[in-house]
Amino acid sequence: MKKLLLIFVLLTINIVGISQTAADFFENGKIKLKKNDYLGAIIDFTKAIELNPKYADAYYYRGNAKGSNNDEIGAISDYNNAITINSKDSKAYRNRGKAKLKLHKYNDAITDFNKAIEINIKDTSSYYYRGLSNHFLSNYKGAIADYSHVIALNPKFKDAYYLRGLSKSYNKDFKGAIEDYNIAIINNPKDESIYFSRGLAKEDLRDFNGALEDYSKAIEIKPNLSKAYFKRGLLKFDIQDNNGAIKDFTKVIEIDPKNSEAFFYRGSVNYNLKNSQEAIKDFTIDIELNPKALKAFYFRGNAKSDLKDYTGAIEDFTKVLELNPKDYEAYFNRGNAKSNLLDYEGAIEDYSNAIKINPKLQAAIFNRESVKIKLCKKNGTINDVNKVDKDYLILANNWLLVGYSSLYQKDYNKAIEDFTNAIEINSNLFEAYYHRGIAKQNLKDYYSAISDFNIAIKIKPNYADAYFKRGNLKDILQDYRGAIVDFNKVITIKPNYADAYFCRGNAKLSLNDYKGAEVDYTISLKYDSKNADVYYNRGVAKLKLNKKNGACLDFSKAGELGYEKAYDLIRDYCQ
To answer: Which of these, 467, 474, 469, 475, lies nearest to 492 by C-alpha position?
Structure first.
């Protein structure tokens, strides 16, 4: 009898314990979750669920614990169960969306955030995370709308202003972005990333002084912010503050000794300053860090030529041509180096290859004819000078050819004088107006350059290259529709003009005509399938059209062709 009584008491205790334990385990789990003991919390929530399989809150909180422990897939499974039990739990939809967001399943995440907002129209967090998802999908207008909802519901939500500014920047509303960054800075004046982003927006608006101030402020807050030094260095380089640029690139190198771009740009500044030895050192380190640094080989070759190390220059230009057999400038410069070493036959071969790639490279034509004469003299066959293009030799004394030489040597002011002299002799010389326009363009005298291209077109109405150059300048001046009109004309005259399709695509991209841009880039690749820039820009257009797989393939192809920047977008969008 006593034994039966003991069994009855034990059973009673166990039944009472079961009805209390599920709730106890749940509360213990919440306490552990607050203390960041995620594994302990998961164990307690699991015990609560074992005792009560319909415990929706236990599934929800276990999902939170798993998410905090980086188990997003497990978290989604728990939120699924919570939603099955309670389909009106907006928090479960929201947190499931957050887990999907972390897994880069942006469209699925948006579906969950939509449901959470449908249940609770004032769910600030769901608007916020939906904004992030839209931004990652390049739906910047949608992201802006979501962040605006967040701000309307909670004007003190600091991050929303900054993120809305970022989305506006990506949407090319730089003024609107700056307005948001201004508020974000008031809310958080010690956040260097806001100053840096505002600097980028100001730079896009050509407010270079304002951009410099913001990059400097970001550096003041975070003295080792290498990207701010780098951007400030590039900007100083553009505005010809060469010494300032060198200091900034040097700081980048101190912070990140393997930053090959910083070595390249510091070398470029030194090259512009005629510090050829220092430039060569920087280009050499860039090459050591990146053996396929085509530009570093090219400019190191130029610097060696300046120091009369023509053999070394030839080695570098040869490496450029191994990396890019279509680089006509490398052929031209290697031809110059060979000519200086009295290798006239080799020089003629290089000039001929340059002309084959770019038939309008007047400097190569001029130099080739000059070398032909030198070769005849060297061989003692001066009578063979008749083999040289006599018509060209007559033109060699013309101001036009002198201008070509000045233009190629990048002495743009001298080139303008030369072409002006040619025009004074013959006012119908459309080539002189055209090339004078190019010289002015290089000096950023855009409106005057357009005037010259206008005259060239008036004299020669089907001058495709003049329309092309004018279209490019209109694009720079943000007259995108005017640019498209010019590129249309180029394509009418020369239907296989690959660069015209590319540039027209760029103008359409600036007008948010992403489908039209994609079509133009595709046609451009039909005529020039090795242009990395076209693949990269087509990838951007596809991203805007939410064609992620196609975009990633284009970025990958651009990377194969040597466009290093493509890998930044691959890391951001293709993981």
So the answer is: 467
Predicted confidence (pLDDT) per residue in 157-171, tens digit:
989 999 999 999 999
SS (H, E, C) 47-111: HHHHHCCCCHHHHHHHHHHHHHCCCHHHHHHHHHHHHHHCCCCHHHHHHHHHHHHHCCCHHHHHH
Alpha-carbon distance of 68 to 65, in angstroms, equals 5
Using a 10 angstrom Cβ sphere, with 0-12 exposed, 13-18 middle and 19 or more buried, the burial of residue 551 is: buried
Per DSSP, 494 falls in state -
- Asked if residue 333 lies in contact with residue 317, where contact means CB atoms within 8 angstroms, the answer is yes
Residue 334 structure tokens: 């290697």
For the segment 263-301, what is each residue's pLDDT rounded down to a tens digit?
999 999 999 999 999 999 999 999 999 999 999 999 999
**Which ranges in 379-461 belong to alpha helices (H)?**
390-395, 399-408, 412-425, 430-442, 446-459
DSSP string, 198-233: HHHHHHHTT-HHHHHHHHHHHHHHSTT-HHHHHHHH
CA–CA distance, 141 with 398 (Å, rounded to integer)? 56
Structure-block tokens of residue 114? 């939509």
Residue-averaged pLDDT of the chain: 88
Quote the pLDDT of residue 390: 45
Mean pLDDT of 407-421: 87
Report the distance separating Cα 422 and Cα 433, nearest Å.
9
Judged against a pLDDT cut of 90, whether residue 407 lies above it is answered with no
